[in-house]
Structure formats: structure tokens, C-alpha cells
Amino acid sequence: MPANSPRALGTCDDNLSDVYEYGTTYATIFGTDRLAERLCFDGAPTFKVSEGLKLCSFCADTGVSPPWHAYLRKPLSSGDQRDMRAELAHFHGRVRLGESDRLRTRLVEFLGKARDDIDPGYIAGLARRWGDVAGADDLLRLQKESKCSAAIAEIFDLEFARRTVNAHKRKAAATRVARRTTSAYSAIEALRLGADPTI
Length: 199
Description:
Radius of gyration: 19 Å
Number of strands: 2
Structural class: mainly alpha
Largest sheet: 2 strands, antiparallel
Order of helices and strands: HHHEEHHHHHHHHH
Helix content: 55-70%
């Protein structure tokens, strides 16, 4: 590491108002393990809960075990503006700490009640995180059990198609998306994943 990197990071601190960006920059320079060590002190969080959760999620995605408990035992503040990234990081932490059984019941209920106008990025994040622990096949089971809307089913079908090792099931899921989607992105992704191009 260049000798002036810590000084550069100190200067960067003056210019970065985004805690997540600062944390990931710190991890790039000093290593994600050092970032994880600095996420709590004597068992207490060193960042605001929403920012700490996002940084814990970042650490976990790089293979470093973060201090999830320090942040998950604190309430996620409910301000006027929802922080979807923090909510997804909260979900990520709960899933990683083995709360899947309890979360699954709540997830089925949530998906069943969610309307089509919900942020698709949020639903995609839930599907991705759930697929990490429960596997591809459970994504299809969640669709069936929740009786979710077509828009949500489309997101879960795409995530299933990305994950499954069964080529026949991948093609079937991708083709379902290609048939019903109104999104150019989803149509292109479905074709990339093997949807029948003749539909």
C-alpha cells in the first residue's frame, strides 16, 4: 500500500458524506476484515444502525464475517424516507444468522400482500438474498405459497432461472417471463437465460 494512502483516506473523509462509500473505500485500502473490526467497539455499534447494516452486508458479501448482532438488536429507524438498502441489509443479516424459518412465514405474507407498484429492486434484493440461503427451488415455492402478483412472480422467476442448475427448468422460467413481461430489461434477461425466442 502506498505510504500516502492513509493520508488520502483522511482527506477523502472530508469530502465523503456517504458513510457506505467511505466504508467501502476504507475496505479497498485497508481490507474488509479491518472494516468489519471497526463496525463495533466493545459490542456496541460504531455507526448509525442503517449505515452499519449496509456495511455489514458489504463485508458478508466479500466473505468476511461482520458484527451483525451489534446492529440487528437495535431498531432500524423509521424516518420519513425509507432506506431500501438498509432494509435489505437488515433482511440479509437475519437470513445469515439463521432466522430463515421465522422469516419465511413473514416473507410469504409480505409477498402475498405486496402490490405491483412496490420497488422491483427491493423485491429482486429479497429474492437474491433468499436464494442464497434457501436455494433456487424455494423461490418457486414462495411464489406458489404467497400467490404473489405477476410482477413479483416475474422477478422470482428471473432469480430462479439465474440460480437453477436444471436447464429445462431454467428455460421454462425464463420463457414464462418473456411471455408476460412488459419490461425490455426483463425480456432481454429472459432471452439471455434461455427463454424460447420463438414465443
